[in-house]
Design a protein that fits this description.
The protein is about 80% helix and about 0% strand. The longest helix has about 30 residues. It is elongated.
């Protein structure tokens, strides 16, 4: 009951499903910002795209830092794609889209 009352005060005229969609959309957008920032930091560090970096890493035996960066960058790139898909789905449910 407390959550429902808060939802009604903070999101007037929205159903609980719409409230949940709005909150999830906001969370997904924050994750997207983090993943994009992470990817940009690696692009700046290595001066290339992930695709180019991946090819370079696969051609040689990478050092520890380069290998760690590869997996972190890959996480960011796949995270961006996954979260962008999720945002599209959530926007279709959102009352404010």
């Amino acid at each position: 009951m407390i959550l429902q009352n808060s939802a009604e005060r903070l999101f007037p005229n929205l159903t609980l499903d719409e409230v949940m969609a709005e909150l999830l959309l906001e969370h997904a957008q924050k994750k997207l910002i983090r993943y994009r920032a992470m990817s940009r930091a690696f692009e700046d560090k290595y001066g290339q795209s992930f695709a180019s970096f991946r090819q370079d890493v696969l051609r040689v035996e990478p050092g520890f830092e380069q290998e760690r960066d590869y997996f972190d960058w890959e996480l960011a790139v796949t995270g961006i794609a996954d979260v962008e898909e999720e945002i599209v789905r959530l926007r279709s449910l959102s009352a404010r889209s």
